[in-house]
């Protein structure tokens, strides 16, 4: 018995699809009304498409025109790995991982909290052109859904240079539900698709960075960029990075505090690393005063960084203790 098999309960009339192997003898079956139940393999029988012929019974389905696809039909229209969100009712949703490729993959799915800590919720092998159910989420709490982290490793079916594992983090937001529900390959159900941007190159080329363009990106106007380029090193205008959540994520309303902090710290790390690459002498981070949590986290990370000469509160007359100047070695 495999994931994707259509099965029937031996002690009942219910039919469904095997969506997860729970252990050696227990599987999870999603029955027709969308609910998943654990069932012992010994209590299931795989439904054959030609069982009516085997038992010499009339095949009434063949007399009815049907456009329904079988579970095993290859979804040629999909390229790359995808998430599928299937509404079970007005509140509950099932989240699936789809593997339309011709290779088996090893998948680890984690939940990510506000401290960038991860907890594994799924770890299994997904066969080529198959799927697996990851979790269920309540639509009423969409804004508090934790981001999902996927580590995907493609198995080598023959001797070749192995592809490096890819790590993809997805934050499911309300924008993913703004389009109409469509037919989901493999599952033959209506739902929403989210593409996972996955590289299938066997060798990963280093990213080419335009240093001048990267430096210019720190300034918001052409005048500031021109002043920077025409000023000698050490006297150029110091770029200021605003870390207030409303300037980073326009959909921040109703986000839990830990998610807001994670987004702000991620932006801080991104811009600090870019400053190193661009060869900047210094940079200012505007984090605000608030309860001091963001400031304390930023100062803690800066104190542990070897490329930092010093850092201090700055522009107190303008920001109070809401901005930090970072001097780079």
UniProtKB/TrEMBL annotation:
Give the matching Gene3D superfamilies.
Answer: 3.30.1370.110
Q: Which InterPro entries match?
A: Smr_assoc-like_sf, Smr_dom, Smr_dom_sf
User: What transmembrane ranges does the database entry give?
Assistant: none
Pfam families in the cross-refs: Smr
- Which residues are in the Smr domain? 269-329
Listed name of the protein: Smr domain-containing protein
Q: What is the lineage of its organism?
A: Bacteria, Pseudomonadati, Bacteroidota, Cytophagia, Cytophagales
